[in-house]
Amino acid sequence: MFGAAQTQAQAIDETTEKQLVNICKALQSNSKMKLNRAVSKSGLNYRSISKGLVCNGMDPVTFALRNNAQKTAELFARKGNLDYQTLLAKL
Fold first, then answer.
1. InterPro entries in the record, alphabetically (predicted)?
2. Average pLDDT of the residues in 25-30
């Protein structure tokens, strides 16, 4: 008999969670300075964040765009090595 694979979300510590929430808030603020500061304080880089961060059920760039935060969406896409135009077209 084969065992079913179980997928579980990996628990993160409270500090890391706060840092990730701060990144989402910075994305929403449309302030490049706040975004750079939040990413820097997290100790992560844009690429790693872009691969796993979810803000209100959306990827970071989509979240920023849905909140009319064009500047932070463009910055995050550029630094996260994402295709901004493709993400924009999906909206």
1. DUF3718
2. 97
User: Does residue 1 form part of some domain?
Assistant: no
Q: What pTM did the predictor assign?
A: 0.80
Work out the number of other CB atoms within 10 angstroms of the CB of residue 20.
19
Q: Is residue 33 in some structural domain? A: yes
In a domain, 4, yes or no: no
The domain total for the chain is 1
Say what the pLDDT of residue 8 is: 42
Work out the pLDDT band at 51, boundaries 50, 70, 90: confident
38 found inside a domain: yes
**Residue 88: its pLDDT value, please?**
59
Question: From CA 21, how far away is CA 5, in angstroms rounded?
Answer: 30
User: Rounded to an integer, what distance in angstroms lies between the CA atom of residue 49 and that of residue 80?
Assistant: 8
Residue 34: its H or E element = helix 32-42
